[in-house]
Design goal:
The protein is α+β, with helices and mostly antiparallel strands. 55% of the residues lie in helices and 14% in strands.
Length: 523
């Protein structure tokens, strides 16, 4: 016989909220004590997962018969976060001046065979949700199962660092372990859009790990890879593979989300989908497309004022105005980007990308100490945040620590070579080689950057200067003519005017080389 509608257990992030018995169970199955009103508020959040609840609605639902002040809600929210170990506010988010959002995937269980999603199936504007299933142990030795479980567990941990993904906890994802299941069934039961599955085979001193990312709505494979390694240091290998898989999955999901958004009618898009369409325009790399991206990011923010990525996207468009297109002075671009990035950080201070973008705005505006603080904070939140490593590299370059700067650039490009800001990242290496006086390396690095990112003209200034400093004056003059002819706005912003992120001494070093190439800045 079916249980009544009231007899239900909600599950999220490994926790279980038993509405019938009025208790909250931990990931280990132990009861977590909560005051009555705190439990009722948690239940309200869980039943409305992904929806913004303001204080008026909370008061009406929890304290309908009495008048209370805001301190009562604040105390209950504090109790809930403490019970869930949610100090970072990853589960229960505060949206400044607007209310709260419960940002975990929630499932309801009416009986052992039934598993349904609760209202917030796609928290925070329908962000992509993903489940990493237990990897199959294909080795002859069943004792190796700890290694296959460890691989999947580490991938969950790495993916969970990203604020753009909603990742199902291990306790929920591993319930399918040892069962032959269809990914569409998994998606229905866990309320996810993407599924990662894989296998581990150990033979002698080698190990092979296969992983694949599946779009659960179609059953189609988005990405797949195989890793073969020596197993002399098994845990090092485990960490290496887990990070490699997680790093590959995030841009693959991003590509899939953008194509999903592009297939829909503009009028039907929510904040997340509007943001994804903005990223698609941003990736085109032209000033016109940058303006179109800005309109979409602004629209996403209007749809959901508490959607931090929209403000990050707006900040990127202003930075690209200055660094890519030369359509506004860099100090103005930095100032506008800082306003948007600050808003993103205010909405979600634990978002590593928002912190990194604020650091970017500080950095291009010449506030390098503040940029380094933001970079370190972002890396502490998510060591796989590509932008954070670029910001740190820029700050290190400004301090003359060129080798360390290039190490950060290398890390940033490895983590996300296709990011809209990757051209700027790559250009930083050319800058550091030139300012270090290693002109041959500067020439090589500049040419490589221009080949990889032909729409980005800024590295040409270091190519011109390095060629001239090396005595290759005819080549330098030819590159200078091409620079001035094809990208006059960028030339004016980067050469005629000193960007705030270049010290006076560094700018003079650059101009010395460009003058040797035949440029007369007095004309």
């Amino acid at each position: 016989m079916k249980t009544s509608a009231e007899e239900v257990i909600y599950r999220f992030e490994g926790f279980a909220l038993d509405r019938t018995r009025g208790i909250l169970l931990s990931k280990n199955g132990e009861e977590i004590r909560l005051r009555h009103k705190s439990f009722e508020l948690l239940r309200l959040f869980v039943e409305n997962a992904g929806q913004l609840l303001n204080r008026d609605r909370i008061n009406q639902a929890i304290w309908s018969d009495v008048i209370v002040n805001d301190d009562s809600i604040t105390q209950c929210v504090h109790d809930i976060r403490r019970a869930l170990g949610d100090e970072s506010q990853a589960i229960l988010k505060t949206i400044p001046r607007r209310g709260y959002i419960f940002a975990a995937t929630v499932t309801s269980h009416h009986d052992p065979g039934e598993n349904q999603m609760i209202g917030g199936t796609a928290p925070m504007s329908d962000k992509p949700s993903i489940a990493v299933l237990a990897f199959a142990n294909m080795s002859d030795d069943p004792d190796q199962e700890y290694f296959s479980d460890g691989i999947a567990d580490d991938i969950i941990t790495e993916l969970s660092r990203s604020r753009s993904l909603l990742v199902v906890a291990r306790n929920s994802a591993f319930i399918f372990k040892g069962r032959a299941v269809d990914v569409k069934q998994v998606a229905r039961e866990l309320s996810v859009r993407y599924v990662v599955e894989g296998s581990v085979r150990r033979s002698g001193g080698r190990i092979r790990v296969s992983a694949q990312l599946i779009d659960a709505s179609t059953g189609g494979h988005i990405w797949a890879e195989r890793y073969d390694r020596e197993i002399s240091e098994i845990f090092v290998v485990q960490d290496e593979i887990a990070e490699a898989v997680a790093t590959a999955i995030q841009p693959a999901v991003g590509d899939a989300e953008r194509w999903r958004a592009l297939r829909q009618q503009p009028a039907s898009l929510n904040a997340w989908e509007t943001y994804q369409r903005g990223l698609w325009h941003l990736s085109k790399g032209t000033a016109t497309e940058n303006e179109q991206a800005r309109k979409l990011f602004r629209r996403a923010a209007e749809i959901d004022f508490g959607f931090a990525p929209a403000y990050v996207g707006l900040a990127v468009t202003y930075i690209r105005d200055g660094l890519f297109h030369g359509t506004r002075p860099i100090d103005e671009a930095a100032r506008l980007a800082e306003v948007e990035a600050r808003q993103a950080v205010a909405i979600d201070p634990t978002d590593s990308t928002a912190q990194a973008m604020l650091g970017t705005a500080y950095g291009i505006g010449g506030k390098m100490d503040a940029a380094m603080v933001c970079a370190e904070r972002a890396i502490g939140l998510n060591r796989n945040c590509a932008w954070a490593h670029w910001v740190k590299g820029a700050a290190l370059r400004y301090r003359g620590r060129h080798g360390e700067s290039r190490d950060e650039v290398s890390t940033s490009l490895r983590l996300n070579p296709r990011d809209p800001m990757s051209a700027t990242t790559a250009s930083l290496s050319a800058m550091s080689w030139y300012l270090e006086g290693r002109y041959d390396e500067a020439i090589e690095s500049s040419r490589r950057c221009l080949a990889d990112y032909p729409a980005y003209a800024a590295p040409r200034r270091f190519l011109v200067a390095a060629l001239a400093q090396s005595g290759r004056l005819e080549e330098a003059a030819a590159e200078l003519r091409e620079f001035v002819t094809k990208a006059p706005d960028v030339f004016n912003v980067m050469v005629r005017n000193r960007p705030p992120y270049m010290s006076p001494g560094d700018q003079q070093h650059l101009l010395e080389g460009i003058r040797k190439a035949g440029w007369n800045d007095r004309r």
